[in-house]
TrEMBL record:
This is Histone deacetylase. Residues 18-280 form the Histone deacetylase domain. Pfam families: Hist_deacetyl. SUPFAM superfamilies: Arginase/deacetylase. Keywords: Hydrolase.
Amino acid sequence: MLKIAYHPIYKHPLPERHRFPMEKYELLPEQLIHEGTCEESNFFEPGFIDSAHVLEVHEANYFERLINLELDKKEIRKSGFPLSQQLVDREQIIADGTVKASEFAIENGIAMNIAGGTHHAYSNRAEAFCLLNDQAIGARYLQNKGFAKQILIVDLDVHQGNGTAEIFQNDPSVYTFSMHGKGNYPFKKEKSDLDIALEDGTSDKVYLDKLKNVLPELIEKVNPDFIFYLSGVDILDTDKLGRLSCSIEACKERDRFVLQTCRDLTIPVQCSMGGGYSKDIKLIIEAHANTYRLAQEIYF
C-alpha cells in the first residue's frame, strides 16, 4: 500500500504575504481521495521528530536556538518566515513524516510526504522557507539504523538543493544530484556531487533528454540502495518563482521516468513534494497529484 505522510499542521496559516501556496497541503489530499487515487488508509500522521535524528544532520547550537525561538533577526529574515512555535512544530513534524515514509518505502518500494523537500536548510541555519532538511535527516536516519549504506538524493526542484549539498559535501555515502534552473535562487550555488544548471526557458525536450541521459548512468555509478526524490513542480512554465518552460505533461513524464527507473531497479524511493508556485492553485494540485497517480500505477 502507498503510504503518505500528512498532518493538519502542514497547512499552518501564515501572514497573508506568506500564505500562498500553503493551501496546497490541504487541497492535495482532498483531491487524491475525491478522485479515488487514494483512500484515508493511505495517509499516516507523523509526530515530532526525535531530536537525536535531527542532531545527526544539524548543529546542536542552531537546533536548540530554533526550537527555543531564539534565532536572531538576521537568521529569521534569512528563513523567509516569521518565527513562531507553530512553524517550528510544523518543521519537526514534516521531518518525522519523511523519516517514517523512508521506512515505509523500504517495506513497499515507495512512500511519500505531502510536504517536505526543505532542501535549503543548512546544517547550521535556515534559508528560503526551510528550517530543517527533511531528506537529509531521513538519509542519515536510514544509515544509522542500518537500512541503507549508499544513498542518492535526486533533487529536481527548480531551485538548487544548496543546503543538502552543504550538509553532505564531505560525505561520499550520500550522493547529491541537483538539476535546477541556472538563473534561479540560490544565486550563489553550493557544489553538489552533480549539478546540472539549466538555462532560462529550458523546454520539455531539452529537460527530459538531459534527465534521461544522466539518471540511469548516475544510478549505475553510485549504486545506491535507497533514493530520496524531491519532485518539485516549480519547473512549470507557469511557475511564479521558476524560470524554466516545462509543461505539465513533461513534469508528469519526469516523474514517470524517475519512479519507473526506481521500480525497475528495485531501489526504494521516498518522495517529498518540494516547490510549486504557479498562479493557478488548480494547476499546482494537478501537477503534484500526477506524482501520486504514477506511484499507484507503477507500484501498486
